[in-house]
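tool_call: predict_structure(chain=1)
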Amino acid sequence: MSVLRRALKPIAVTAAALALSAGTVAAGTAQASSESASCTGWINIGSPGNYTLLGSYAGQVEQEYNTCSGQVMAHWQWSTPYRNAHPYAHVDVMAMSWENYPAVMDRDKVQNANVAQDVFSYGIDIHAAHPDKWFAYANVTDEHGNSCRYATGGSVHDYATGGNGAPDPSSC
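tool_result:
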């Protein structure tokens, strides 16, 4: 069982006991550097974390990085069938630091499925946390108040080294 699942509760988020999972992926890397040659705006980082609620795939969350401003944010994308079936379900999405206590977070965004297919947190500078390791967090609550015990997280990204950890899906 992943440490992220044991450490994150949907309502009270804490990063007291987080430790990186052993798996790694080779997708999307970004290193924060003053030597950055190009400014391309928002790019996807790492791998998304999937969320399945009561047997229905609700969507996924992925970390995004702004190559111009050095900010990180979380991007949630609803599954179209889930969104159509549960228009009043809502998601709480945010970017959260890794290996920091207390955790550093950007301002979360809570939004109903019927508002938009994509939901973005507000973003925060990657250097607001030391070390500058971040992941995208999301928790879905359906129109009846049902939610998984644990949230989902996209892969942890280390902006100093460019390394990624494995994503942490949630299913209940």
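agent: The chain has one domain: 3-10+41-171. Proceeding to next step.
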